[in-house]
Amino acid sequence: MSAQVKSKQRVQEHGEVFTNEREVNAMLDMVKQETERIESRFLEPACGDGNFLAEVLRRKLAVVASLYRKSPTEYMRYAFVAVASIYGVDILEDNARECRERLYGIVEGESKAAIKGAVDSLFLDAARYVLEKNILCGDALTLKDASGDPITFAEWSVVTGDKVKRRDYLLSELLEGHNAQPSLFGESGSMVTDWEYDEETQAYIPSAVREYPPVNYWEVQRNG
Questions:
Q1: For 128-147, how does the pLDDT look when each residue is reduced to its tens digit (9 = 90+)?
Q2: Alpha-carbon distance 171 to 167, whole Å?
Q3: Sign of the CA dihedral 61, 63, 68, 73?
């Protein structure tokens, strides 16, 4: 767990104060069942270097280990699902980078401990790639990334066996979907169509801005 303050300057300029471990666990315990559901998705809009996301990932991987540690193949498949369910945004690039590295370190360490070092490098490469897509530098208030483009997140869904389908969504539309009656128009004023109600999230989900063909989970990098 990192210190609560990195520097006075960062506090003054960005209001950056990290949540301590006791508070992190107390808050996550309020939704304990979801933190232990492998596929449940978490988004931290001001993730810092990952205090909340790291604990969520540890809890998920503990469940994966308890269920699948005797089968490295099954363990890596479900560990991929756990990693792919975690999302974060931070306005500072160093925080986003440190968060990605921290989460990757947890995946690598927990996986090697659970299946006695028999961890496929392709699985670890896939986990790193997913974290690059899921933990972004951007502003969760303006919903823009560091380049000024709309924040876009990938959804990773296991469709059959080891096959994973990636669909990209605008964060702005995903957030809008949590309204009971989503708007018919997006930020640009263009029509938004094909909203569907998703039972898992209990929210309306918009059309994906891009879809990719299913690939084996350890080959997700193929889709760019």
A1: 999 999 999 999 999 999 99
A2: 12
A3: negative
Decide if 179 is inside a domain.
Answer: yes
Q: Has residue 1 been placed in a domain?
A: no
Q: How many domains does the chain have?
A: 1
Q: Give the residue with greater pLDDT, 103 vs 11.
A: 103
Query: Dihedral angle at the C-alpha atoms of 126, 222, 50, 81, nearest 10 degrees?
Result: -60
d(CA 23, CA 42): 17
Tally of CB atoms within 10 A around 86: 25
Q: Which helix (H) or strand (E) holds 172?
A: helix 171-176
pLDDT band at 9 (very low <50, low <70, confident <90, very high): low
- Cα 34 to its chain centre, rounded Å, is 14
DSSP for 102-132, written as a single string = HHHHHHHHHHHHHTTT---HHHHHHHHHHHH
Is 169 domain-assigned? yes
Segment (H or E) for 154: strand 152-160
Flag whether 176 is in a domain: yes
Cβ partners under 8 Å of residue 59, min gap 6: 28, 35, 36
**28: domain range?**
8-223
> 143-188 pLDDT, tens per residue?
999 999 999 999 999 999 999 999 999 998 888 755 544 444 444 4
